[in-house]
Amino acid sequence: MHTSVINLIGIENKLNVLAYENKRKPEIIAVSKTFGIQHIKPVLEHGHKNFGENKIQEAISKWTDLKKEYTDIKLHMLGKVQTNKVKFLIPLFDYLHSLDNLKLAEKISNEEVKKNKKIKIFIQVNLGEEDQKNGINLKDLDNFYNECKKNLNLDVIGLMCLPPQNENPEKFFRKLKECSDKFRLTDLSMGMSNDYEVASKFGSTFLRIGTKIFGERV
Ligand SMILES: *Cc1c(COP(=O)(O)O)cnc(C)c1O
Question: Which of 54, 134, 160, 164 has the most CB atoms in a 10 Å sphere around its CB?
Answer without folding.
Answer: 160
